[in-house]
Amino acid sequence: MKTYDAIIIGAGSIGTPTACFLAQKGLKVLVLEMRAASGQGDNKAAIGGVRATHSDPGKIQTCLESLDIYSTWKETYGFDVGWKPGGYCFPVYDEKIENMLKSLLPTQKKFGLNINWVDAHQVAEIVPGINKEGLRGGTYSPEDGQVSTLLAPIGFQREAQRHGAQFNFKEKVTGYLRDGDTITGVVTNKDKYAAGVVVLAAGADAAEHGPMLDLDIPVTPDTHEAGISAPVKHFLAPLIVDLRPGPEGKTVNFYFGQNNEGQIIFCYTPKELFIGTDRESQSEFMPIIANRMINLIPRLKNLLIRRIWRGCYPMTPDGVPIIDFAPNPKGLFLAVGMCGQGFMLGPGAGKNIASLIVDNKPVISDEANKFFRYDRDFYASKTEALK
Ligand SMILES: Cc1cc2nc3c(=O)[nH]c(=O)nc-3n(C[C@H](O)[C@H](O)[C@H](O)COP(=O)(O)OP(=O)(O)OC[C@H]3O[C@@H](n4cnc5c(N)ncnc54)[C@H](O)[C@@H]3O)c2cc1C
Description:
The chain has nine helices and 20 strands. By secondary structure, it is an alpha+beta fold.
């Protein structure tokens, strides 16, 4: 049987950077991916927003790491992952949302985020053409940005392979090898492999592994809609998050930005969540999101929409990922439940996971890292206000 230091299940937003950073540390890595290439799961459903603008300290510090990695990837490794600086702006028209966002600023600043409340005039400069009626101001975090979800996994895979990592595609993990209470490898539809550690990074399918491991993996996928326009002249630097209740009456956020190619790319959380993994896209959300985008930036009314799709957020009960060794069985590392932020968490999480496995310490602070622990009470509170 072939033996590896680490086996990673899933070559997605989390699996590919994890492979890269483990291989950089000298481990012999095998990545097993049931799809035909890296990044073809929910990774490619993401619209590529990368922000450290969160309310949860673990996410703030992990995404600061990610921003550092994404923004310097081209100069470090010579491969363009489509990094576009420009920040994130949360424009505010509502007192309640203003108070909520302002209340998060002390934690965000404490954990290292460059973010400020800016007045309506400044928001109008940052977001040209924004509807100024009732605009109260907003938050602006200039160091956030955007990355291509199609290019990033290729960048990580290439760097991992340069350090000897092996990627097996169209190979599904169907079971585990055990020695007592320790995982010693995996079984796939094609073969068996032994490993010192197995990293479960199976995204929306993570909970399926629970029964194979006698472990509760509290990840429930729900689906979200997205779309992309034909390219237009560059005018929008930041990604915009609109937290106002839509016509549905609920505070469901939607967010959008303009990518490197000039396309407007957007995502929408439906009024009633679609629980499960049905990724069949529907067009019902288009009139809703079109109205909201035009209401916010009227000049978007002539956009030609090219394509829409639907993908999963792998959710945990408290909206925070699990990035931790499983308590039992041993030899298993859980990198699951990335919610709506797996792409932005990916590089920082990958670096953190490699450090936890190889050096037994996180790259983020212990205080921030404890939010990702498996042994927390998932039902105690919803710690993450900015989903
Ligand atoms: C519409 C939409 C917009 C989004 N926008 C953003 C955004 O702007 N920014 C952001 O950060 N996040 C965004 N997200 C969320 C992001 O896409 C997810 O959080 C992220 O992709 C999850 O990463 P992952 O590695 O856990 O899962 P994935 O990227 O799906 O990777 C898991 C991989 O595991 C493989 N796999 C599963 N089971 C097995 C098995 N048994 N054997 C072998 N392989 C297996 C799968 O094929 C898959 O490739 C968005 C999501 C959606 C739906």
